[in-house]
Design goal:
The structure holds 3 protein chains of 3 kinds. Chain A is an alpha+beta fold. Chain A is built from 16 helices and 12 strands. Chain C is of the alpha/beta class. In chain C, a hairpin with a 2-residue loop joins strand 11 and strand 12. The chains are: A alpha+beta, B mainly alpha, C alpha/beta.
Chain lengths: 476, 339, 359
């Protein structure tokens, strides 16, 4: 930059870079005997605060300190256009000194921030009720509050050429496996997309098998859950704009653990954990089982029940699979519509759907009342899972089971179970086994999976599919 | 293929490979030959099984196969799988799917095995875990028949003559099928974990209790004449049990048994492919697929009860050859070489 | 590659039909079958519920043919949906039909994999049709009526607890004879009731039956007590008379088998349920009661055994230990013949264990 470029032309130049955006503040100001240009977005920075900070730095400069520009929130850089745009876009204040070709960066962005309320989708009864918000600093402070150790490491990088999204990954150096950390870094860096908007998008890039119905990352908005997982050697990923943290590598059973288990009594925790496992079974198999029984194996209905079932199904014109699909469609519609409606209306939809339609559909003879019981029970079971992703997964995978049952009865269910089992064994989360105590089979770890053991034991993540410590793993 | 097994995984593979299809089919021919002495003879056979295991354990290091030997074994396993599949298919056709075309049932079953075998080796190895909760349930259900057991059915003993005894021992060899996997997988077991001694004895007891009790239940529940008519006695016992919440537990069991058998088949297919990989390089995927196509096509030629029975009978002789003769020869040869 | 294979697999699932599907609404659940006639000319009756407009009614259908299977197919022509005997509750065989080899009639039930083998089986006296439409009102659902009737009788030890599967086991066993519940229609009321036990020799009904009390005794001999087994007597002692009802609490049996005779000892532990005479706190009275019951029961037990021997039907299963442990006696020839001639004596010793809440 030429020495005597007038500050006016610099201001014009800056305005051009930011396309004359009206929320951009660019003004010339006096700096001792020279001139400087202050530049920031008014929507991201508080003007009064800027004045205070500038006052402070001016004072340091006039005192003749050599590092006059280095305070807790400010730093001095050589001027370049990219530093300028980056600083301003991030909500910092940039003060440009044309003569010395320096750029003073003051980091005092102001964002609208929620208070850390308990996330709506992960309520617990006992335990902490705070949740993550849409800002990494606040989130990290919630984690640091729980883990006062120097081993807790945050690494951050920006991905997406158009969005420059901040991604942070957090792990505990002494516990986490360095290979996995390196792998996460590599995968994050290799994200080629220009636009990275949501954490879900990041998840897609990081997953080992995107087409698997099973989530390979645990999504949570609860700091206590993140902390518990970090202590098990896992890695948590945050974006700056989402309250959701991604945790990996996880295994299937961690989706069935709730912080409530460890806040409650041992027996109670174990009972509810087992109940959740059972809910996995009922949510997947119950409609398929009913379809198979009605279509193929009516012999197994107990005699006393037989007449009632027969009475119920005798006048239904459709095959059981269509009955089931019809009802499932209703339930999915009710669920999907109620999610986006404000709470009072959502409840009304639930009541209308559940009671009115449920009742009418039976008396209209479209669906038998046994099917209503089965589908309702299935829906309730699928909501028991403490993780939203797993809940959706379960809702999806019961459809193939229903179709298999309607084609081959129990044979279809048995084959489906085997295929599901094999698939679960194949899935990996960051190259580590997803179905962990089962592949590689290790019965000694079952008690931690199916029961809540009396004290929190730090479970190490299972690293390979093969038994033993060496990390060769199986070749695929 | 490199993989490492823990002790439990190893024994699980052995157990599932040895039980599987046979668990349902061997009692009737065995009891028909030797009558009430079946249970006593089976205890004797069990001791033989243990001796065989001990010998295997002592000598497995010397069991190294050349390409020719491994082709023999591959053929043998193919025969085993084909005979198992045709038996399962026949049984399923009789019990549940009289109208479904054979090829559909077979290809679905083989398809599962194909899927498992195209995955990591660990998948097949650990596949048997799914049966762990199911087998005890099956066992408990069989025990429901307890009040109807007639204890005097076990006596008198010692009526069998030597030719029938020999035949009986031969039929009981069905329960041994799969024992040769010990020789192939033993070297993959974690060196830090002990197999010799107690663990092997525990495995032997599991094996013995499982098969012996199935013989005992059959003898205790049915009268001798009746057993001749019933090819799958365990199913029949379950069929006549009544539990309050559900009728016809045999229907559940037939599918459990089918899952069990599919896993046995996958294990044998896995072993075949593993042995093949020892000498042939590459094309693992292609070979696996070709092998499974064979598995679909070959059983289609065997669809009457007679065919199934013939191949089942011949299996015993093959088994004796491959579980006793070939290992003895190979081990002796390699021992001499080492010296 | 793998994904394509998966998709192909799923498509083939959808394309292929459902060959073995049998919708529950398309079948008729037969819950009661009656067989009469003779081999070559079998007549069968089927009772089943029908479902119309949300209510259940019951009807029966008749068929005839050379075999039971043919009779069933014949009956199919007269029903709306296919007859399905998968959830059979009760099987009746007419008295005269049972006098020839009954296995011929029930082979169909064993061979069909869809069948339930837990059903009850009974021999009925006289004409079958009157059991399907009894003149007295026993409810519309006759199958459930009979099923409950039989189950209650089993609970009260009137009849042996035996289902179709065990019938076949016993039929093929050489060391025990079959005994089945025997049902007849009460002449005055027209209500079908349990009359006792029908005795079989080999696979044929002997025509001999035991009455209800004898049936209880038979079951005690077999040591197959139901929940309750009660006996009533009129107790006489020194000019005093008193009704006396006892309930069997426990039952020990011991058979001494030698080559030319069988001595059976039974020790019954009883609880007194009815004894207006009172005074059971006295040792002497108890002793008297025990002696009285021992004597009476020994007499009755021996009577039952005699009857069994006359019918050449070893319903108790004396043959079982004989076959297992006494080859010499077993080798004498056909067991039922040997049994009929063998001297068998029964001794009963009674012990009063409880007197209920009164003394």
């Amino acid at each position: 930059m030429d020495d005597m470029v007038s500050t006016d032309s610099l201001i014009l130049y800056i305005k051009k870079i930011f396309h004359n955006s009206s929320d951009l503040f660019v003004e010339e100001t006096k700096w001792q005997d020279r001139t400087a240009v202050i530049c920031y977005y008014t929507v991201m920075t508080e003007g009064a605060q800027v004045n205070l900070q500038l006052e402070l730095i001016r004072k340091r400069a006039s005192d003749g300190l050599i590092d006059w520009g280095e305070t807790a929130i400010s730093s001095v850089h050589a001027f370049s256009v990219s530093t300028l745009t980056e600083s301003v876009s991030s909500g910092f204040v940039a003060v440009i000194f044309p003569e010395t070709n320096l750029l003073l960066q003051i980091k005092m962005p102001k964002f609208a921030m929620r208070s850390p309320n308990e996330p709506d989708n992960e309520h617990v009864i006992r335990g902490s009720h705070d949740g993550f918000v849409e800002g990494f600093d606040a989130n990290m402070s919630l984690i640091r509050k729980r883990l006062a150790i120097p081993d807790l490491v945050v690494q951050s990088l920006r991905i997406g050429n158009d969005t420059k999204t901040h991604i942070n990954y957090v792990y505990i150096e002494s516990i986490a496996d360095e290979d996995v950390v390196a792998d996460v870094k590599k995968r994050l860096e290799s994200i080629k997309s220009n636009k990275v908007i949501s954490i879900g998008q990041v998840e897609d890039y990081l997953e080992d098998s995107v087409w698997s119905p099973f989530p390979q990352f645990l999504n949570t908005e609860r700091p206590d859950r993140v902390v518990a997982n970090l202590l098990e050697g896992k890695i948590a990923l945050f974006t700056d704009s989402s309250p959701t943290a991604l945790i990996a590598p996880v295994n299937f059973f961690s989706f069935y653990e709730s912080p409530d288990d460890y806040n409650g009594r041992v027996l109670v925790g174990s009972f509810y954990r087992l109940l959740r496992m059972l809910s996995f079974m009922t949510a997947i198999f119950l409609p398929a089982f009913y379809i198979a029984v009605i279509g193929f194996h009516s012999d197994i209905i107990p005699l006393e029940l037989g007449k009632q079932v027969k009475l119920a199904v005798n006048d239904i014109p459709y095959r059981p699979i269509f009955e089931a699909l019809l009802l499932e469609l209703f339930i999915e519609l009710i669920r999907e519509s109620a999610i986006r409606l404000p709470t009072p209306i959502g409840q009304t939809v639930g009541i209308v759907g559940g009671l009115v339609i449920g009742n009418a559909i039976v008396s209209a003879g479209l669906v038998s009342n046994f099917m209503v019981i089965v589908v309702a029970m299935t829906a309730i079971s699928s909501f028991v899972v403490p993780s939203w992703e797993m809940n959706m997964t379960i809702r999806i995978i019961r459809f193939p089971f229903m179709i298999a049952a309607s084609l081959f009865g129990f044979f279809g269910i048995a084959i489906g179970t085997l295929v599901l089992f094999i698939h679960l064994m194949n899935v990996s989360s960051l190259k580590q086994p997803y179905f962990s105590p089962i592949v590689p089979f290790d019965p000694s770890r079952f008690k931690d999976v199916f029961f809540r053991s009396p004290y929190v034991r730090l479970k190490k993540q299972q690293k390979t599919f093969t038994h033993g410590e060496d990390k060769e793993g199986g070749n695929r | 293929m490199t993989f490492k097994l823990s002790r439990i995984q190893f024994f699980l593979i052995m157990f599932i490979a040895q039980t599987g299809t046979v668990s349902l089919s061997f009692q009737t021919p065995f009891i028909n030959v030797v009558g009430r002495d079946a249970w006593l003879i089976f205890i004797g056979v069990g001791i033989f099984h243990y001796v065989l295991l001990l010998l295997y354990e002592k000598n497995y290091k010397y069991f190294v196969l050349g390409p020719f030997g491994s082709w023999l074994y591959k053929g043998y396993w193919l025969l085993i799988i084909v005979s198992f599949i045709s038996y399962i298919d026949y049984t399923l056709a009789v019990w549940a799917f009289p109208d479904t075309p054979q090829i559909v049932v077979i290809s679905i079953m083989v398809g599962v095995s194909l899927y498992a075998n195209l995955s990591r080796p660990e998948t097949v190895i650990n596949l048997s875990v799914i049966l762990i909760p199911l087998i005890p349930i099956f066992y408990l259900l069989l025990l429901l028949a307890w009040p109807e057991f007639v204890w005097t059915n076990l006596f008198p003993i010692g009526e069998v003559d030597s030719s029938r005894l020999l035949k009986g021992i031969l039929t009981s060899q069905f329960t041994f099928i799969g024992i040769e996997l010990f020789l192939f997988f033993r070297k993959h077991v974690d060196i830090k974990q002990k197999i010799k001694g107690l663990p092997l004895l525990i495995y032997q007891m599991f094996w013995l209790v499982f098969f012996l009790s199935s013989v005992l239940f059959t003898l205790l529940y049915f009268s001798l004449e009746e057993i001749k008519m019933i090819p799958e006695p365990a199913m029949y016992i379950l069929k006549s049990q009544t539990v309050t919440f559900v009728e016809r537990i045999d229907l559940f069991f037939i599918y459990l048994w089918m899952m069990w058998s599919i896993i046995t088949i996958s294990l044998f297919a896995f072993t075949t492919m593993y042995v093949h990989q020892l000498h042939a390089n590459g094309h693992k995927k292609r070979n696996t697929i070709i092998f499974h196509i064979l598995l679909v096509l070959l059983p289609l030629f065997l669809h009457s009860k007679e065919h199934v029975a013939i191949i089942q009978k011949s299996l015993v002789y093959f088994h004796l050859f491959f579980a006793i003769v070939v290992p003895t020869v190979v081990i002796l040869m390699n021992r001499r070489k080492k010296k | 590659m793998k994904r394509n294979a998966c998709i192909l697999l799923i498509c083939s699932f959808l394309l292929s039909g459902c060959w073995d599907e049998r919708q529950y609404k398309d079948i008729t659940i037969v819950s009661l079958i009656g067989v009469e006639g003779k081999p070559g000319d079998v007549k069968a009756q089927f009772a089943y519920p029908t479902f119309e407009d949300g209510s259940i009614s019951y009807s029966t259908s008749k068929g005839s043919g050379k075999t039971l299977r043919e009779a069933r197919n014949d009956a199919n022509h007269r029903t709306m949906e296919g007859l399905n005997i998968a959830s059979l509750q009760v099987l009746f065989i007419a008295e005269d039909t049972a006098k020839s080899d009954i296995y011929e009639y029930i082979d169909m039930l064993y061979r069909d994999p869809r069948n339930r083998l837990g059903a009850h089986m009974a021999i009925v006296q006289g004409d079958l049709a009157s059991y399907f439409k009894p003149s007295a009102h026993v409810g519309d659902d006759v199958a459930t009526y009979y099923s409950n009737l039989l189950e209650t009788a089993i609970r009260y030890t009137f009849i042996p607890d035996i289902d179709i599967q065990q019938v076949s086991t016993v039929l093929f066993a050489e060391d025990i004879s079959l005994s089945l519940p025997y049902i007849e229609i009460e002449k005055e009321s027209g209500i079908p009731e349990i009359a006792g036990t029908a005795l079989f020799n080999k696979k044929e009904f002997t025509g001999e039956t035991l009455d209800k009390k004898e049936s209880i005794l038979l079951n005690l001999l077999r040591k197959k007590k139901g929940s309750f087994a009660r006996f009533s007597y009129i107790w006489k002692s020194g000019g005093e008379e008193s009704p006396l009802t006892v309930q069997v609490v426990d039952n020990h049996k011991q058979w001494k088998i030698s080559n030319d005779k069988i001595e059976a000892f039974y020790k019954l532990k009883l609880s007194v349920e009815e004894f207006p005479h009172v005074g059971l706190d006295k040792k002497k009275v108890i002793k008297e009661v025990e002696d009285f019951l021992s004597k009476e029961m020994t007499k009755e037990f021996n009577g039952v055994v005699k009857k069994l021997q006359e019918a050449k039907s070893d319903a108790v299963g004396f043959g079982r230990p004989v076959r297992a442990f006494h080859p010499a006696l077993w080798g004498k020839g056909d067991w039922t013949e040997t049994f009929a001639k063998l001297p068998i004596s029964v001794k009963v010793k009674v012990e009063v264990l409880r007197t209920d809440i009164l003394n």
